[in-house]
Design goal:
alpha/beta, Gyrase A, domain 2, Four Helix Bundle (Hemerythrin (Met), subunit A), Rossmann fold, 6-stranded mixed sheet, 45% helix, GTP-bd_TrmE_N, hydrolase
Length: 438
């Protein structure tokens, strides 16, 4: 039994001028002929009346596009119906497609079929998912490079080199008594060491690609009434957090999302650090400390008219930014714990432009788009770490058979990233991230 013919809404939900229904599978041509009368010319938009297959009721006047296999996104017979975007129209055409023998697609099923039909590899599929989810220009650029094959080219090149090394090693084992080139076995070990160094250099990227894909977390920490909530509101450009002269107003973590030079940043305002007055504030302070420990960057805030207390000073650490707020009340000190603080006034806006520029620099330094194709997922990192470990095993292996097995294991690990070997366990995890219709 062949694959089912599927359909899904490929455009956004809700009312719109146009809605796009995507179809794919062996029954696409029959379904289009049933609803639209005849198949249009391939890859040409044709205006048709769509009729229900049982009642012949006219459902809509729509543009129909037909993409015969293999020249389609999925590699199967595919089509698109560009409908009027009302919910009743979409529901009526969907019901007609079910009556014609099609079924609704599962999340990611279109792209999964594209992968299974050899139209793209797993890294490109993940790049498409990231492209759909991209919030910023930098995320879009990184996702587009991956979707267009930047990671596949890199990892595929390593796989080709490993395959060549394995062939040499197998030749040494099978034809040891033959007149093989001198030093063939040693050359395998030497070349594998070079490849391992390249993989390790790729891994030593401080997680830039993953951070850009997922976004950075910046935590604002400090004593009550240091102006943390006012700072959050000023950077967000809206009243996201309640501001009050009463100490302990912020009990939970308040978050806003920012775009800093293309890097998505979650800015978290936390409860003021002090001896808590009740169990609710105790929990708020616990969450504040945990958020700061998890953060990629901590903004330690104190008020210029109050010297920072011991709890605040404990967070003046390497990598943190120290902010002296309320410079409209008193000037910022020259040094705090050996660090030059950044003077700002969340109330008047003094110093905020410079602070935003500094935050953008820090964000780009931690998660900016790298020149080469960066790692973007933990599964890539785990597989490459495993491959590098197997190549290290090869260098220490005393027998050629053990070296060959290390090469095979390293090749399998890299193959799991692109989907060329051992992919069944990861397919559901990869394509489960997609929306319906993609």
């Amino acid at each position: 039994m062949g694959p089912a013919t599927i359909f899904a809404l490929a455009s956004g939900a809700g009312r719109a001028a146009v809605a796009v229904l995507r179809l794919s599978g062996p029954g696409t041509a029959a379904a289009i002929s049933t609803l639209a009368g005849t198949l249009p010319a391939p890859r040409h938009a044709s205006l048709r009346r769509l009729r229900h297959p049982h009642s012949a009721e006219v459902l809509d006047r729509a543009l129909v596009l037909w993409f015969p296999a293999p020249a389609s996104y999925t590699g199967e017979d595919s089509a698109e119906l560009h409908l009027h975007g009302g919910p009743a129209v979409i529901a009526g055409v969907a019901e007609a497609l079910v009556a014609a023998g099609l079924r609704p697609a599962e999340p990611g099923e279109f792209t999964r079929r594209t992968f299974l039909n050899g139209k793209l590899d797993l890294t490109a599929a993940e790049g498409i998912a990231d492209l759909i989810a991209a919030e910023t220009a930098a995320q879009r650029r990184q996702a587009l490079r991956q979707a267009e094959g930047a990671l596949a080219t890199l990892y595929g090149g390593w796989a080709v080199r490993l395959t060549a090394l394995l062939a040499r090693q197998e030749a040494f084992i099978e034809f040891e008594d033959e007149d093989l080139p001198a030093g063939l076995d040693d050359a395998v070990t030497t070349t594998a060491a070079v490849l391992r160094a390249e993989i390790q250099a790729h891994l030593a990227d401080a997680g830039r690609g993953e951070r850009l894909r997922e976004g950075l977390l910046v935590a604002i920490l400090g004593a009550p009434n240091a102006g943390k909530s006012s700072l959050l509101n000023a950077l967000a450009g809206r009243e996201a957090a309640i501001v009050s002269a009463r100490a302990g107003t912020t009990r939970d973590v308040v978050e806003v999302r920012l775009d800093l030079d293309g890097v998505p940043v979650t800015l978290a305002d936390t409860a003021g650090l002090r001896e808590a007055a009740d169990e609710i504030e105790v929990e708020g302070i616990r969450r504040a400390r945990r958020r700061a420990e998890e953060a990629d960057l901590v903004l330690v805030v104190f008020a210029t008219d109050q010297p920072p207390d011991a709890e605040t000073m404990a967070w003046v650490r390497p990598g943190a930014l120290v902010l002296a707020n309320k410079t409209d009340v008193a000037p910022a000190p020259a040094l705090v714990g050996g660090v030059v603080p950044i003077g700002i006034s969340a109330r008047t806006g003094d110093g905020l432009a410079a602070l935003r520029a500094r935050l953008a620099e820090e964000a780009v330094a931690r998660a900016g788009v790298a020149a080469a194709a960066p790692l973007t997922r933990s599964r890539h990192r785990a597989a490459l770490t495993e491959a590098a470990a197997w190549l290290a095993e090869l260098e220490a292996a005393p027998l050629p058979e053990l070296r060959a097995e290390a090469l095979r294991a390293g090749l399998r690990a890299i193959g799991r990233i692109t989907g060329h070997v051992g992919v069944e366990a990861v397919l559901d995890a990869v394509f489960g991230e997609f929306c319906i219709g993609k």
